[in-house]
Specification:
By secondary structure, the protein is of the alpha+beta class. The chain contains 6 helices and 8 strands.
């Protein structure tokens, strides 16, 4: 659930790194935090083992499955009701399901990710939701042009990130079909799915 402007030192780390308090797994996220994501189950066989081995959020049981963030953070869960669900659905209703290809890895400081291509449909989903809630900005507005990505691991030793990157280079490309946007919330222990918003299939 992170984005950045490019692969330079101006990049961010993942949400666990952004919000960690003292590095304690139980304090990575405040309870009630929410996000809108697209799950990439096709990436699980490729990145899952590395996430389990070197990603702190995944090891702590707090991580979500392989995904690309649409908007993190979203509204506090206490503010999310039927009208918010209806607003998300309305914002996303013009958008069609689409295919992604992951051909390369990338690095932000302390983080390894897979780069989705093309990223324009993902950016369009973010614009749709932030257009509905103009007061909410990805990552609190800290980064002017967040880049969509699928986090493999963050806050891991560089040697581990290097090893993961070398391994993944031989396991790409992979392709994925994005059919929905999920609303997830952190309940104090783990991220849980709260709702799913289907995208339109072509021709519908």
């Amino acid at each position: 659930m992170t984005d950045t402007t490019d692969d330079s030192a101006d990049g961010t780390t993942d949400e666990a790194a952004d919000d960690a308090a003292g590095g304690a797994p139980s304090s990575m996220f405040p309870a009630g935090r929410t996000a809108l994501i697209v799950r990439i189950p096709e990436a699980e066989p490729v990145v899952g083992d590395w996430q389990a081995r070197i990603d702190p959020a995944t090891r702590a049981g707090a991580g979500v499955p392989a995904h690309v963030s649409v908007l993190y953070p979203f509204l506090p869960e206490s503010l999310i009701d039927a009208s918010v669900h209806a607003g998300i659905a309305a914002a996303l209703s013009p958008h069609h399901a689409f295919d992604l290809r992951f051909e390369r890895t990338g690095r932000f400081p302390g983080m390894l990710y897979l780069a989705p291509e093309p990223d324009a449909p993902l950016r369009g989903l973010t614009r749709a939701v932030t257009g509905r809630w103009p007061g909410i900005h990805p990552y609190g507005g800290r980064y002017p042009d967040p880049v969509p990505h699928l986090t493999v691991a963050q806050r891991a030793p560089e040697a581990d990130l290097d090893a993961a990157e070398a391994d993944l280079a031989g396991r790409l490309p992979l392709t994925a079909r994005v059919r929905a946007v999920d609303l997830v919330a952190y309940d104090g222990t783990a991220w849980r799915e709260r709702a799913r918003f289907l995208l339109r299939e072509p021709g519908k």
